[in-house]
Structures are given as structure tokens and as C-alpha cells.
Design a protein that fits this description.
This protein is mainly alpha-helical. It has one domain. 73% of the residues lie in helices and 6% in strands. The chain has ten helices and two strands. It has a two-stranded antiparallel ribbon. A hairpin with a 5-residue loop joins strand 1 and strand 2. Helix 4 packs antiparallel against helix 7, helix 5 packs antiparallel against helix 6 and helix 8 packs antiparallel against helix 10. This is M50 family metallopeptidase. Keywords: Membrane, Transmembrane, Transmembrane helix.
């Protein structure tokens, strides 16, 4: 552990990591700021509901549609057994999906594959658009995709790498904040049908344990993603 800490400290002090650190700080401000978070949280909701949808399909359920709302909430509807592994995995997938997408993006940035990351993200949004069932959801996906297309077409490779690093940092940080928000809502009795509560009813495992599981996944993804981003090619 001491060796790992020393290695990370050396990376942090390396001037070549200045850009990654600055971009990470910007992403953290965007997540924590009360003015920017309500708008940018739509991106997190897209990733969250996309996670539900992908796992629903992989587990053999039929995807009926996805709705994204202006209050940054979302709903993914699928049909199949109302209990069992498929339903459990579908409910489980939403919150970790955000952090895991950020982790995947961090790996691609570190591997100098920012262009690949952009087109993978755009492709996923195009596929997701086919499942959106409300106007605000269509708008949210189109705006997010439009920004990524603009970066891919107009930005230089160096700026593409920085933008992709920013996006990855944002998902890594942004994957954690909604878990804390859900915990506070549940403490006030305002989220009786949250993913965690539905999982608790299906499995008998307390909702708090699911929140802890999601939080640990998010923290591990953040630490690993941060390490990769600090190794991103210098721009």
C-alpha cells in the first residue's frame, strides 16, 4: 500500500499531469456547483437509464422504452418476470453504469483513443435514441450527442483528448453524487420506490446495503479512473 501511495504521489507531482489534474478539478466543480449540476445531471441520467436498458436486454427482458424528464429523473420500462435474476440485475445496473462508463472513458483516454471514445459514445446515444419515448428525452440525447459530434469533427486531437478526459472525470464524480442524493431522500421518506428499495423488496437485502455497494463501486472506479487519467498522453 505504501508503495502504491508513493507511486500515485509521484504521478501527482509530475508536471506532465497538470492538464489531467486541472480538467479533473473542473469536472469536480461542475458536479458540486449548484448552478451547473441541475443541467449537467441530465447526462448522468442518460447513462443511468442506459445502464438499466442494456442490462434488461442482456438478461432477456423486453425493453419497452426510456423516458427522461426535465427534473433529471428517468424511467426505463421493460417487461419480463417481476422477480428473479433478470429483474435484480436490471435494477442494480443504473447507478454503477455511470461510474463504469467514466472508467471506460478514462481507459480509452489513457490509451490515446479519444476519437474512439467519442464515436463509441455517439453510437450508444444513437441506439438509445431509438428507445426514447418522450420529447424531453429526445432533446436531451440529441443535445448530448451534438456536443460529442462537434468535438469529434471540430476539435484538434489535443482538444479531443482534453474534452474526453473532462467527460470521463465528470462521469466518475457524477456517478457518486446521485447516490448521496438518494440516501438523503430516503432518510426523509421521499423515495419509497427507488432502485435500492425495489431491490430490497426483491432480495431481502436492506436498501442501505445496495447504496453502500453502489458507493463502493463508484469510489473504486474513481480511484482507478483517476490513475489512468493521470497517465493520459501529454497535450
Amino acid at each position: 500500500m505504501d508503495e502504491l501511495v508513493r507511486e500515485w504521489t509521484a504521478q501527482l507531482l509530475d508536471p506532465g499531469n497538470a492538464a489531467a489534474l486541472v480538467v479533473g478539478a473542473v469536472a469536480l466543480v461542475l458536479v458540486l456547483n449548484r448552478s451547473t449540476w441541475p443541467l449537467l445531471r441530465n447526462v448522468v441520467t442518460i447513462a443511468h437509464e442506459g445502464g438499466h436498458a442494456v442490462v434488461a436486454l442482456l438478461s432477456g427482458r423486453k425493453l419497452n422504452g426510456i423516458r427522461l424528464h426535465s427534473d433529471t429523473s428517468g424511467l426505463t420500462v421493460s417487461t419480463g418476470r417481476s422477480s428473479g435474476p433478470g429483474m435484480v440485475l436490471t435494477l442494480l445496473a443504473g447507478y454503477p453504469a455511470v461510474s463504469l462508463l467514466g472508467l471506460g472513458g478514462a481507459w480509452l483516454v489513457a490509451a490515446d483513443l479519444a476519437q474512439v471514445m467519442l464515436w463509441v459514445a455517439i453510437g450508444l446515444l444513437v441506439v438509445m435514441l431509438l428507445a426514447i419515448r418522450n420529447a424531453y428525452g429526445v432533446l436531451s440525447v440529441l443535445v448530448t450527442g451534438g456536443v460529442l459530434v462537434a468535438v469529434s469533427w471540430l476539435a484538434t486531437p489535443a482538444w479531443q483528448a482534453l474534452c474526453c478526459a473532462l467527460f470521463s472525470w465528470f462521469l466518475l464524480f457524477g456517478g457518486l453524487r446521485p447516490i448521496g442524493e438518494l440516501r438523503r431522500k430516503r432518510s426523509r421518506g421521499r423515495a419509497p420506490d427507488s432502485d435500492a428499495d425495489q431491490l430490497a423488496r426483491l432480495t431481502g437485502v436492506p436498501a442501505a446495503m445496495w447504496l453502500l455497494c453502489w458507493y463502493l463501486i463508484g469510489v473504486v472506479a474513481l480511484l482507478l479512473g483517476a490513475r489512468w487519467l493521470l497517465l493520459m498522453p501529454q497535450v
